[in-house]
Amino acid sequence: MTATAAAIVLALILYRVRRFARADTSVSDLNAVHAAASQQEMLNRWRARAAFTISWADGTRGDWDLHLRPVLAREFEQVTKVRAHRNHIQYEAAGEMLFGPSLWQWVDASQGARDRRDEPGPGRGVLAEILARLERA
């Protein structure tokens, strides 16, 4: 094989290697774009669920009891590490200490009232205050 033919074969091999490397890079770039889009989609879904959950704060007491109280009670238990089913007296004391009686009534899982479901709920202001106190705890 002549030197010219060897140079042409080497050039073709290098060209194919570079083309394959570019294709591989573009695939990894596409994967990165897809991963970012997937993360953005997850964040958008989380925001939509959070907005939907928050919207129940402006509803009735029944809406609050069904949609917000369980979430708030679960968050309270996670933050304080006090479980209602283990020691209800300690659970009540921790809740009243963190929230005060006026807010605790809206977090305590045992305070749901089926007979007063049509009364107005406490609203977003109370929800915001409860969340702020949970955040500080």
What does this structure look like?
This protein is mostly helical and 137 residues long. 74% of the residues lie in helices and 0% in strands. The chain contains five helices and no strands. It has helices spanning 3-55, 61-80, 88-99, 101-104, 124-136. The longest helix is centred in the first third of the chain and has 53 residues, at 3-55. It is elongated, with a radius of gyration of 29 Å.
What form results from the Cα inertia axes? elongated
Number of contiguous helices: 5
Order of helices and strands: HHHHH
Gyration radius from CA atoms, angstroms: 29 Å
Helix percent reads: over 70%
**Largest sheet composition:** none
Provide the low-confidence segments as ranges.
Answer: none
C-alpha termini separation: 80 Å
How many β-strands, per DSSP?
0
Strand content bin: under 5%
Helix/strand structural class: mainly alpha
Q: What is the overall pLDDT average?
A: 83
Quick description:
This protein has 137 residues and is an all-alpha fold.
Helices and strands, with pairings:
Elements: H1 3-55, H2 61-80, H3 88-99, H4 101-104, H5 124-136
Provide key terms for this protein.
single chain; 137 residues; mainly alpha
